[in-house]
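Researcher: Go.
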Amino acid sequence: MHIRRGKLSDLDELARLEALGFPKEEAASKERIAARLAAFPELYFILENDGEIISYINGLMTDEKDLQDEMYENPTMHNPSGKNLMIFSVVTNPEFQHKGNASFLMEHVIAECRKTKTSLVLTCKEHLVSFYGKFGYKDEGISASEHGGAVWHQMRYTI
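Model: Structure:
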């Protein structure tokens, strides 16, 4: 297994996995993923094994403090010199879930962010607060996000 950055040729598989990983209202569309890959492919962290995508994490950079719903829709909000990585998706192929793959990839992303002194912000549902907490993310309570009509907790990992 190795970790690499995203590329446009990953589009179909990333869209397939996104649809498997999130309810329809929350999943990024193929078009949205394409726009993100065009704007910031380096912020798609992909774990693969023998050419198969096992897991991925993606987001955009910004100086904004909180994750805003508009960020999901608008890749032009990406600021390459921003100090916060807003994580949109942590997705693992269902065949490879519960085997430590997302954890392995998250540790890698955190290590990369330490190098650039970049903090990380994500939103998650209540049942995942303890999962992200084990990496050192702090729960900041219910987010203002209404993405997909769900209730989200905002989590922050400060470098």
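Model: The two ends are 27 Å apart (CA to CA).
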